[in-house]
Amino acid sequence: MSASENQQFRLASRPKGMPGDELWEQRNEPTPTPGDNEVLVATRYISLDPAMRGWMNEGKSYIPPVGIGEVMRAIAVSEVLESKHANFKPGDHVGGSTGVQTHAVIKGEELHKVDPAIAPLPAYLSVLGMPGMTAYFGLLEVGALAEGDTVLVSAASGAVGAIVCQIAKTKGCKVVGLAGGAEKCSYVVDELGADACINYKNENVFAGIQKHCPKGINVYFDNVGGEILDDALANLTQGARVVICGAVSQYNDMGNIYAPKNYMSLLINRARMEGFVVFDYQNRYGEAATAMAGWMGEGKLKHKEDIVEGFDKFPATLRKLFTGDNFGKLVLKV
Amino acid sequence: MSASENQQFRLASRPKGMPGDELWEQRNEPTPTPGDNEVLVATRYISLDPAMRGWMNEGKSYIPPVGIGEVMRAIAVSEVLESKHANFKPGDHVGGSTGVQTHAVIKGEELHKVDPAIAPLPAYLSVLGMPGMTAYFGLLEVGALAEGDTVLVSAASGAVGAIVCQIAKTKGCKVVGLAGGAEKCSYVVDELGADACINYKNENVFAGIQKHCPKGINVYFDNVGGEILDDALANLTQGARVVICGAVSQYNDMGNIYAPKNYMSLLINRARMEGFVVFDYQNRYGEAATAMAGWMGEGKLKHKEDIVEGFDKFPATLRKLFTGDNFGKLVLKV
Fold first, then answer.
1. CA Rg, chain A, in Å?
2. Is residue B134 included in any domain, yes or no?
3. Interface predicted TM-score (ipTM)
């Protein structure tokens, strides 16, 4: 690959179910040239997020879907090769929504600088990136976390869940995670500091919640949807908050989504279930990043990236998000 | 019936589905005598509420279930016959949870006076009673109503829904009701002042919502649950509030409840779904009653009671709540 060749994954058709290899058109184009106020970047790390599955579907959502034939949307960390924008110069590292491609030309306003001297580049896609912001605002704002709360977190070893667990611990809460497999559960307890972790693959989730949250759940941070959401709803305390961050167990079959039959627990418990989109907090990212960097400095906030090397591996790597095969924030190294 | 005879409906067994006549043991007992600080009352009007169906089920809820063999729980307006409590004297009218019986002995602290000179006695079971308080706090507190909101109300001609419609209109909102049948729909628009009413019995609810709420729903006040909840979820605006007040369409088959498959609309729209129990607002009932009485004085708040006469008719009258046959607040006149 040379700087004059831009490799891309374009969405060729809309997925049904698990996104297969056949959805993608791999195309090599000449690397574009930046115009006024634009910047040419070389992609270094591409963030793979469950939300990408939603962006591939047709229809109304919180942002427009990726069009057929378009480069797949993705957030990435890149290096500036050429700049016609006053804020950037070659060699700078930047984050932005530059897509699944090895190079991109993008307006300078749509990029922000990241500093590899402060944290390794992949961290800007995890704890200091969208997953970190999602955990911070979802837990503290939407979940209205209070000291002493019992917090249940699904996908607790995942990019968002791991940060939720740790922030909740810094706030003096009891934290119970849910993860798939003994290795992930050990990580959640031993590394992230959760009080317990339920292995949903071989434990009864309802019984596990009753055991570890005998007084009920104050905050359920839901990344997965499905039956686990119902188990959580059945164990709420009065005034509980259910934060709908995602439903990764359902993304490949949204037409046949698992509907939470215990929603009337919201009435009995005077509880609420609330969704959010992290982009709404964009003007407060600085506040979150400052807090997160502080906790990282104090050793209270660990992060783990699952880095897969090789741009060509994008289609297979994306699927790892939905099979539970990734462990930590999934990142593609270009 | 004499003052020495207390007729009662006691719960003989737990219902499955629609509550049949066989659930009840009708018993005549000697009228009890009040002890210190107690009051003997003669029941005048008994409130029939959808919540009663929930009280008949076993298991955890916001209040304990009615025990097998116990007098059925009900809120009623009564006349004091004999008082050993300083606050009450014979001839006073009082409200309280005195049950489905013609007489009751109850502690004075559990009663509150009502004044038939201010409003007819049944109004103390509707607009000035639990349904009125439910509408007031559900809409203004849980629903966080704002001027200019578009409000969708199910069971809009019912005891709670009718008041929700009218409060929302006094607050400068657009109001769309849902009711069963042309007569109820006319009432919702012509008498309650709603901007439109969808007849769910012969109209497509989803299409009706799209027609009458083209910009989406800011507040959905849900009394019914079921598919209509899904239709509403699919039409939320950003930041919408779904108030879970009840699910009367589901109360006779809670083991097989209709689960809202469109709950992920809460994420897309950064919306929330929240339940509440009116009893939590007990110390603020005075505030609500004052506001409601004010609106009644200005002619902005109408109320309609569906009064069935005859204590013996309790079992059949209760079923009217679940067949949609009542029209207005359902009250049994003793």
1. 20
2. yes
3. 0.89
Same domain, A160 and A115: no
* CATH number of residue B168's parent domain: 3.40.50.720
**Alpha-carbon distance A187 to nearest alpha carbon in chain B (angstroms):** 29
Do residues A145 and A253 share a domain? yes
- In this complex, is the C-beta atom of A268 within 8 Å of any C-beta atom belonging to chain B? yes
Q: Are residues B45 and B134 in the same domain?
A: no
* Pairwise CA distance, residues B220 & B217, whole Å: 7
Residues A121 and A15 in one domain: yes
Taking CA–CA distances from B267, the nearest residue in chain A reads A275
Question: Do residues B118 and B135 both lie within one domain?
Answer: no
**In A, which residues are within 8 Å of B264 by CB distance?**
225, 244, 247, 250, 254, 257, 275
Cβ–Cβ contact A63 with B under 8 A: no
Closest CB from A246, A257, A268 relative to B62: A268
Domain region containing B104: 5-126+304-333
Do residue A264 and residue B270 have CB atoms under 8 angstroms apart? no
Nearest residue of chain B to residue A272 (CA atoms):
B274
Asked if residue A141 and residue A120 are part of one domain, the reply reads no
Of A264, A269, A280, the CB nearest to B247: A264
Q: Do A60 and B269 touch (CB under 8 A)?
A: no
A51, A55, A60, A64: CA torsion to nearest 10: 120
Whether A264 and B257 lie within 8 Å, measured CB to CB:
yes
* Domain annotation covers residue B295: no
**Is residue B290 a part of any domain in this protein?**
no
A183: left (phi over 0), alpha (psi -120 to 50) or beta: alpha
The verdict on B90 and B144 lying in the same domain is: no
Where does chain B have alpha helices with state H?
A: 51-55, 130-137, 161-170, 182-186, 205-212, 227-233, 265-268, 285-297, 314-323
Would you write out chain B's pLDDT as a tens digit for each of its 334 residues? 455 799 999 999 999 999 999 999 999 999 999 999 999 999 999 999 999 999 999 887 888 999 999 999 999 999 999 999 999 999 999 999 999 999 999 999 999 999 998 889 999 999 999 999 999 999 999 999 999 999 999 999 999 999 999 999 999 999 999 999 999 999 999 999 999 999 999 999 999 999 999 999 999 999 999 999 999 999 999 999 999 999 888 888 878 899 999 999 999 999 999 999 999 998 998 899 889 989 998 999 999 999 999 999 999 999 999 988 888 899 999 9
CB contact at 8 A, A316 and A323: no
Question: A53 to chain B: which residues are within 8 Å by CB?
Answer: none
Residue of A nearest to B261 (CA): A259
Q: How many structural domains comprise chain A?
A: 2
Residue A33 burial (CB < 10 Å; 0-12/13-18/19+)? exposed
Beta-carbon pairs below 8 A across chains A and B? 98
- Based on the domain organization, do A202 and A258 belong to the same domain? yes
SS3 A195: coil
**Which chain A residues touch B276 with a CB distance below 8 Å?**
267, 270
